[in-house]
């Protein structure tokens, strides 16, 4: 009994910080979301408006637009990363001289500040002296300008995310692949399966839990991407082509000091993320449970 | 026949990885090239070779008072946050690992949900908290968390503590509890057990926690940009400030970006093996 008190004592600083800076804002935003409160309005007081803020949100085209951009961005970026990452992880399974060096280089983007990644890609794509528009113009005669062309800008933020996060997928899947038991693959080989069949019917099912883990983490992170896109496209331009939910809150809602409405939007964003994550988590744990043990992981 | 296939296989793997390495490194290299160009040379055709190094981009930035402040702020905030996170996570994980606390599984899981939350959703409430709720005094003697080092240090704990606890849990669980029991029998108290037994045995894991928390805090931009004004601005916000409506000094911006990159490169070289464990919350070990 006495020792449990020591346990709580050791845990308390962590709980206090998480409560004050993690939970309290959440409760506060829930509360403010029911009020109309704008520091720029003539009446700076908080007026209770019930669910009006939420009603406004459902018809807010800019919000829905940002939501749609976020979903499209997440979908295309994560799918591409998964495919490329799996391919690269497979190639890292065999040993070859210099593998360690290639791995170190591959890991680099993961640790670069997202804002720096935005800066790096901005320097690559600037009309005038960036190499990408220069080469596309000179070699293929393509007019590439992410300040004007919405489709090109959207494609560029996806490419940037692929550049940034594929290493994470590669290395995580590699950890899973190298932990797989060799017997099922050998047995399939003895039975005369070709490499595609081994991949499709042996490796992929065994890798399922770890693929879901990777998807879970990647989707979670892609949904909240702000820094690099904000830096690359200068706040989600051209127009709203690359304005994700995070950028919308950061660049449009936050400066307007429309606190009540912004709180409602923040909460809905949070809710939306939690629902997606929860759905993923349920499918993840159910798969694990039905397998009896966590197959792909060490 | 088999040998030829093996050679082709090798060649393909090498070809693939040389391309991957080039795609990874060339954009970074281009940034360094731009940081070495003067305003006049900027619009020359893209080039991989640095013909003359325009050092002024760097010296201007390093000698700039404002920028020095940003740099020092970043170092103070990252270091304080990393130390705080590591110490608190060690205590918390020890408690979660050794004591049967009511609801400890829930605590463990709740920490994970902190990571799911999109930071943008917390911008507004945290801004309000920092300026309105956690504020003492009025007028000139008013004190609040807004634009203070402490505010950011505590805030980054919310993002770093969960990952630190998840990472350390496996490591501390692996230390046999018999060791603590033996020490307790010899009359040691909990503080001694943690500092003399757990600390040395978990040292590599703690070092990784320290390094990764440091770099995550160093890299953070969104909150630093919205919750600070002048006093506690960090280097990442400084980088974003370079892009202005009136025109950007691209060379200087590239120089700042290159300076920001240095810690990342060091971490990648020395802690490469642990990055995946850190990013997957210890769920995947490499």
CATH architecture of the largest domain in chain B: Orthogonal Bundle
Continuous helix count of chain B:
12
> Largest protein interface?
A-B, 93 and 93 residues
- Strand segment count of chain B: 2
**Could you please say which CATH topology of the largest domain in chain B applies here?**
MetI-like fold
- Fraction of helical residues of chain A: over 70%
What's the main sheet of chain B like? Answer: 2 strands, antiparallel
Query: What is the succession of H and E elements of chain A?
Result: HEEHHHHHHHHHHH
Q: Any low-confidence stretches of chain A, pLDDT <50, length ≥5?
A: 291-298
CATH class of the largest domain in chain B: Mainly Alpha
- The best one-word shape of chain B is flat
Strand order of the largest sheet of chain A: 1-2
Domain count of chain B, please report it.
2
Give a summary of the structure in a few sentences:
Chain A has 298 residues and is mostly helical.
Overview of this protein structure:
The complex is a heterodimer of chains A (298) and B (286). Chain A has 298 residues and is an all-alpha fold. Chain A has two domains: 68 residues, no CATH class; 191 residues, MetI-like (MetI-like fold, Orthogonal Bundle). A two-stranded antiparallel ribbon of chain A has the order 1-2. In chain A, helix 3 crosses helix 7 and helix 9 packs antiparallel against helix 12. Chain B has 286 residues and is mainly alpha-helical. Chain B has two domains: 54 residues, no CATH class; 218 residues, MetI-like fold, CATH 1.10.3720. Chain B is built from twelve helices and two strands. In chain B, strands 1-2 form a two-stranded antiparallel ribbon. In chain B, helix 3 crosses helix 9 and helix 11 crosses helix 12. Chain B is flat, with a radius of gyration of 24 Å. Chain B starts with a helix and ends in a 7-residue tail after the last helix. The mean pLDDT of chain B is 85. Chains A and B meet through helix 1, helix 4, helix 5, helix 6 and helix 7 of A and helix 1, helix 3, helix 4, helix 5 and helix 6 of B.
């Amino acid at each position: 009994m006495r020792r449990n008190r020591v346990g709580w004592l050791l845990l308390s600083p962590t709980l206090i910080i998480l409560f004050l800076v993690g939970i309290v804002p959440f409760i506060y935003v829930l509360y403010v979301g029911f009020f109309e409160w704008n520091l720029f309005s003539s009446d700076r007081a908080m007026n209770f408006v019930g669910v009006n803020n939420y009603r406004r949100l459902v018809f807010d085209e800019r919000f829905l637009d940002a939501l749609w951009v976020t979903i499209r961005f997440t979908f295309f970026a994560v799918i591409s990363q998964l495919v490329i990452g799996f391919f690269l992880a497979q190639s890292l399974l065999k040993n070859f001289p210099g593998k360690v060096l290639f791995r170190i280089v591959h890991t680099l983007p993961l640790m670069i500040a997202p804002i720096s990644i935005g800066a790096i890609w901005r320097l690559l794509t600037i009309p005038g002296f960036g190499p990408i528009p220069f080469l596309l113009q000179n070699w293929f005669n393509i007019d590439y300008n992410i300040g004007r062309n919405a489709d090109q800008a959207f494609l560029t933020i996806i490419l940037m995310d692929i550049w940034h996060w594929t290493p994470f997928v590669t290395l995580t899947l590699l950890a899973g692949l190298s932990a797989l038991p060799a017997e099922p693959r050998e047995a399939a080989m003895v039975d005369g399966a070709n490499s595609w069949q081994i991949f499709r019917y042996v490796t992929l099912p065994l890798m399922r839990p770890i693929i879901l883990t990777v998807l879970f983490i990647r989707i979670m992170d892609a949904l909240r991407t702000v820094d690099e896109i904000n830096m690359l496209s200068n706040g989600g331009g051209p127009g709203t082509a690359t304005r994700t939910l995070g950028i919308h809150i950061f660049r449009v809602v936050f400066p307007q000091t429309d606190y009540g409405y912004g709180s409602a939007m923040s909460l809905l964003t949070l809710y939306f993320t939690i629902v997606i994550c929860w759905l993923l988590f349920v499918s993840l744990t159910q798969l694990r449970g039905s397998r009896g043990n966590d197959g792909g992981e060490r | 026949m088999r040998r030829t296939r093996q050679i082709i296989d090798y060649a393909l793997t090498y070809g693939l990885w040389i391309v991957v390495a080039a795609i990874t490194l060339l954009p970074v290299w281009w940034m360094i090239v731009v940081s070495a160009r003067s305003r006049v040379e900027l619009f020359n055709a893209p080039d991989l070779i640095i013909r003359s190094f325009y050092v002024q981009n760097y010296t201007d930035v390093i000698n700039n008072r404002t920028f020095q402040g940003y740099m020092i702020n970043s170092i103070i905030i990252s270091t304080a946050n990393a130390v705080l996170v590591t110490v608190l996570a060690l205590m918390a994980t020890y408690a979660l690992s050794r004591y049967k606390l009511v609801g400890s599984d829930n605590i463990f899981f709740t920490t994970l949900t902190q990571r799911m939350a999109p930071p943008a959703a917390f911008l507004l409430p945290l801004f309000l908290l920092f300026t309105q709720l956690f504020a003492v005094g009025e007028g000139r003697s008013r004190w609040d968390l807004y634009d203070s080092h402490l505010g950011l240090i505590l805030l980054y704990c919310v993002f770093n503590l969960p990952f630190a606890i998840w990472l350390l849990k496996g490591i501390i669980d692996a230390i046999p509890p018999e060791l603590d029991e033996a020490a307790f029998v010899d009359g040691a108290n909990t503080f001694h057990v943690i500092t003399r037994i757990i600390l040395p045995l978990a040292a590599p894991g703690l070092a990784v926690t320290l390094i990764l928390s440091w770099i995550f805090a160093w890299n953070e931009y969104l909150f630093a940009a919205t919750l600070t004004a002048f006093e506690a601005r960090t280097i990442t916000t400084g980088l974003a400030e370079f892009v202005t409506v009136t025109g950007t000094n691209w060379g200087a911006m590239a120089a700042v970006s290159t300076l920001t990159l240095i810690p990342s490169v060091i971490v990648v070289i020395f802690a490469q093996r642990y990055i995946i464990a850190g990013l997957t919350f210890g769920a995947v070990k490499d």
